[in-house]
Amino acid sequence: MFTGIIEEKGRLRSLSLMGRSGRISVNAAKVLEGTKIGDSIAVNGVCLTVVSIEKDGFTADVMAETVRRSNLGQLSLGAYVNLERAMAADGRFGGHLVSGHIDGTGTILNTRREENAVWVQIETKPEILRLIIEKGSVCIDGISLTVAAIDNGSFQVSIIPHTGEETTLLKKKPGDVVNLENDVIGKYVERLLGLAKEEKKETAPDCLTMDKLKEFLL
Question: How much is the pTM?
Answer without folding.
Answer: 0.86
